[in-house]
Every structure is written in structure tokens, then in C-alpha cells.
Amino acid sequence: MKAISTDGLSKHYGKAIALDNLTLDVPENVVFGFLGPNGAGKTTTIKLLTGFSRPTAGRAWVAGEEIGDGNLNVRAKTGLLPDVPAFYEWMSGREFLHMVGEFFRLPGTEIKRRTEELLELVDLKKAADRRIGGYSRGMKQRLGIAQALFNHPKVLFLDEPTSALDPIGRREVLTLIKQLKQHTSVFMSTHILSDVERVCDAVAIINKGKLVTVSSIEALRAKYARSTFEIECLEDSTNFAEKLKHISYLSDPEVVVESGTQLLKVRALDIQQARSQLPRLIAESGLTLSRYEFSLPNLEDIFVEVVNGGYAK
Amino acid sequence: MTGLTALLKKEFKEQYRTHRFLIVGAVFALFGIGAPLLLKLLPEIMKLSGETALVQMPPPTAIEAFGQFASMMGQLGVVVAVMVAMGAVANELRHGTAVATLSKPISRAAFVTAKLLAMSFTFLLALSVAALLCFVYTTWLIGGASASAFLQFNLLQGLFLVFCLAITVSFSCLFKSSLAAGGLAIAVIISVTIMSGLPIIGDYLPGKLVAWGASILSGPAQSYWWAMGVTVALTVVAVYLGQYALKTKEI
Q1: What does the alpha-carbon distance between residue B93 and residue B81 come to, in Å, rounded to a whole number?
Q2: Which residues, given as ranges, of chain A have pLDDT below 70?
Q3: Closest Cβ opposite residue A103 in set B3, B95, B108
Q4: Cβ of residue B97 closer than 8 Å to a chain A Cβ
Q5: What is the number of other CB atoms lying within 10 angstroms of the CB of residue A176?
Q6: DSSP for B96-107, written as a single string
Q7: Less crowded by CB within 10 Å, the N or C end of chain B?
Q8: What is the separation, in whole angstroms, between the first and last Cα of chain A?
Q9: % residues pLDDT > 90 (chain B)
Q10: Are A19 and A44 in contact (CB under 8 A)?
């Protein structure tokens, strides 16, 4: 069974298209990154999948339940952390979690046990009896994760879970998310690519409401492995860069200055040929080589290229 | 109505912790005490102004004290009810707390109903306390108070207050701005009150309950059971429309 499945899911606001024909399958027990720049349609998708918004067209299933008006079975099987989690600020963290347990109609002893367990998990035990109004943004985010996990959800939706956190808070939340996939499928929207590289097993990239690609991170790297060669010489390499523009298995040679050093970057369209021929070309140019490096693209490079349309699907 | 009990518990706790019980109770208690007290002290206040020769005040009566109370409840009481209820759902939509609650297996119908039930309880309790204080003070300061007529008046006033709360909560489901909800609710309440003065149709409108209550205080009065029935029906319709508005709303 798929954790999430959508078929032609679309959302229009008048003439504006927030989401266009999204067809997507998310397997169980993975952390699935849903990537896109601001305004790409990430939050709209989460709102559609959690039933807070109605699709203009298409259908969606979450944890085996079709999303539709008033289907409370879905809510019993899912958890949601909105991009800006809001709480009743007059309550304490412990009271809030207790109330959430009552919403799931769990027995009193189970509510108490789960509340303490979650407070421990998100490291809020010491602040559990303080008013939520006095919590920091990071504490609220952690409380948001705790409330979303109360029912041991089969599918957990996290909308930009680390966007407002400091580096320590981010690391804590990401560690927590990594632990969750043993029991839960996590659907995480974000535009912070380093987070995706750290915790996600697979990603979908969305841009202007359209799905651009879906893949595991390894497969994405392999698929878009137009690797870059970095060449550092003692002399000016501008003329050499011009010469490389006419080589068929290379593309986009450019000379950049990084930390005061001139660096020639060139992409390989055919890696094998580039690997065998490029050292010869450098030798023939008469330049004195001081560094020669071959690097695979990181997720940020791929993301920027995919979003800018540099890579065809 | 999935989750109604848990939501009611939360609503009552919120009313207690945010001092809403205390504030509404104190304001209504002030109306209850203030009406007979003001009437009793008015001649003294007039004397202090040095205008005794011009104004001859007749001794105050219980009917006048109750009438004063009815006037306060009918105007200021309704305004307080609208002000408290206008943000009930709108504020939760605006601040995002509605998402926290409605992402759980809680029906939107229960979300609206719990708010109206909790607020109705608060206002009816506050009205009961205010009425009791008014009756005790009137008996003590003025005398000649009729418990039966005053009880009937308060039952009608209580029903009208619940109607006002239902209208306001219903509008609160439509807007993220509590001011818009409150403004529209006030407009509707003023309209039904004014329209109750119209011949024939006015006898069937909620505003007639206020006039009926006031006339009961003065002596035997004509009953307007249809107005009562229509008020109950409109309250139910308002709650249903509020629930429907929230169900169809994209949050």
C-alpha cells in the first residue's frame, strides 16, 4: 500500500494555477522530501492532502483513505505540523498534548502515558507546565511535532519543519524526523536542501505548480550526473575556456574567481570522454596545472537546474 | 458531532483561564445591582445637583427597576454577547489554532456547536446571577417585586441572548475578521429588533421577545409564542449555517 497517492490533483484559484495535475506515489516508511521554491505549490499540496483545501480536479489517497469532505478516518491515521504551528497560548504544553489525546478519544491512562512519552521525545519535559505563550519558536516547533505524533500516525505531514529554527534546533528536529520513519511515512515540504540531503530517502521537485521530477536522491544524482571538472592553473585560463566551448563532450566552461583564485569550471556531457581527453587538452594548452578536480553535483545544483529548466525530465 | 465532549471541555477551560466567566459575570452582575441602585439613588443624585424645586421624582417602583434592568440587558447585554462571540471562530481561523484542532478527528460541526454551547452556558449563568442580584436588591431597596413576572422576563431575555450568540458565532465562521463578524451580527440583531415593531410580521420575529418580556414586567401581557418558536428555529438555522460555512471553508 502506498502512503500517499494522487491522481491528477489540481488546484486553481480563479485563473491562477496553484497545483497542476499532480500524480504522485509516496511509498510507506520513507522520509519523502517535497521540494520547490517559494510559491511552487508545496503548502497547497499539503492542504489538499490533509483535507483543508478542496481540489479543483483529481483525487488523493492518504494511508489508504480517500481524501474527501469530512473523512475523519484520514485524520485518525495522519499527523500534521503546519508551516507556522499555532497553539492555545493560555495552555501549558502538557495540557495541550492532553487535549490532543482527548480529541483522539484515547483512555485517560493512555493519554497520560503518551503525553509524558512525547514530552520526553521532544525534550519539553522541563517546560511542560509553562504557558505555551512563553515558549520560543523552536519549542513551539517541537511541541508541534509532538502533537502531530500523538496518534502514532501512519503518515506525517511536515510543512517546512525547520524553516524558522536555529542550527541547533534544526539538527534536533532533523534527528527526530530520521527516527520516525521506522513507524511512519513522513511527507516533508521544504526548500532547505541540506535538510533533504540529511534525512530524505526520496524527493519530488515541484515548480510553478507542476511536478518536475520524482526520484530517490541517489537516482536523482545519477540521472542528472552531468559532472563538473574544476581546473586551477597558475596562468590566466580565459583563452583555454574559450577553446573548450568548441569541444562537443563539454559544456558551459566558465572562469570564476573563488577566494582570490581563478578557477575554470566545465561540465561534462560525456564523462568517460571528458575524463580521458581533458588532461591531454590542458597539457596541450601549455598551462601550468595546480589543481584538477572532478565533482558530482550536489542536490542544490540539481535543484537549481531542475527548477530553472536546465534539465529535461 | 465527533469530538463534542472534548471540545466542550476545552471551551469551558478556556473561558475560565482567559477570565471570560469572570468578566461576563462581573459586567452582568453590575447591571443586576446597578438597575435598582440607580433608581433608588436617583432622587438623592438630583438633590445633590440642587434642582429639587424643578424635578419632583415619584418614589421608585419594582417595575421601574426591572424595566431599567431589561433595558440594560437588551442593549448592553447584547453588545457584550456580540463582542465576546464575534471572535469565537474567526480568531481561531486567523491565528491558525483551528488547524491544530481540526487536523484531529474532530468534526467542524462539533467545533462550532461546542463554542455556542459553552458561550450560551456562560451568558445564561451570568444572566441568572444578574437577575438574582437585581431581584434581591430591588426587594431590599424598593420592595413590591414580582418574582413570577421577573422570571418570565429573564427566560425570554435568555432565549434572545442565545439567539444573538448563535447569529454572531455563525458570522464568525464566515470571516477571518472578528470585527466583520461582530458588525454584521449587530446589524442583523438591530434589524430584527426594529422589524418587530412592524404590524403582523413583527409578531413573529425574535425582537418581539424583548418587547414581550418588558410588557410582562408591567402586568398581564399578550403572548407571542410564534416569535418564540421563530427565534428557536432561527437559532438552529444560524448554527447550521455556521457549521455549513466552516465545513465548506478552505482553511
Answers
A1: 20
A2: 222-226, 296-298, 309-313
A3: B3
A4: yes
A5: 18
A6: SHHHHHHTSS--
A7: N
A8: 26
A9: 63
A10: yes
Instruction: Pick B6's closest partner by Cβ from A50, A69, A102.
Output: A102
Measured between CB atoms, does B14 come within 8 Å of chain A?
yes
From chain B, the residues in CB contact with A103 under 8 A are 3, 6, 101, 104-106
Write out the DSSP string of A165-209.
--HHHHHHHHHHHHHHTTT-EEEEEES-HHHHHHH-SEEEEEETT
SS3 B150: helix
Q: Cβ separation of A103 and B96 shorter than 8 Å?
A: no
φ, ψ of residue A290 in degrees (nearest 5)? -115, -25
Contact B37, B68 (CB under 8 A): no
Measured at the CA of A40, the angle between CA A35 and CA A42, to 5 degrees, comes to 55
Instruction: Name which of A210, A203, A215 is nearest A21 in CA terms.
Output: A210
Whole-prediction pTM: 0.83
Which amino acid type is present at position A39? G
The 10 Å Cβ neighbour count of residue B154 is 24
Assess contact for B85 and A76: CB atoms under 8 A: no
Test mutation, A11, A88, A105, chain B, max B CBs within 10 A: A88
Residue in B97, B104, B250 closest to A103 by CB: B104
Which chain A residues touch B118 with a CB distance below 8 Å?
Answer: none
To which H or E segment does residue A26 belong? strand A16-26
**Measured between CB atoms, which of B9, B17, B251 is closest to A52?**
B251
Report how far Cα B69 is from the mean position of its chain's Cα atoms: 13
Q: Are B228 and B159 in contact (CB under 8 A)?
A: yes
Looking at residue B161, what is its pLDDT?
A: 95
Nearest CA in chain B to A96: B10
**CA atoms of A213 and B156, how far apart (whole Å):** 65
- In angstroms, the first-to-last Cα distance of chain B is 19
**Residue B51 pLDDT grade (very low, low, confident, very high; cuts 50, 70, 90):** low
**Do the beta carbons of residue A187 and residue A158 sit within 8 Å?**
yes
Q: Do B107 and A90 touch (CB under 8 A)?
A: no
Is residue B32 a contact partner of residue B130, using CB atoms and an 8 Å limit?
Answer: yes
What's CA B67's distance to the chain center, in Å?
16
Task: Quote the pLDDT of residue A261.
Answer: 84
Cα→Cα distances A264→A58, A276, A280, A282, A305, Å: 48, 18, 16, 11, 19
- Quote the cell numbers at residue A190: 521544504
Q: Is the CB of A76 less than 8 angstroms away from the CB of B105?
A: yes
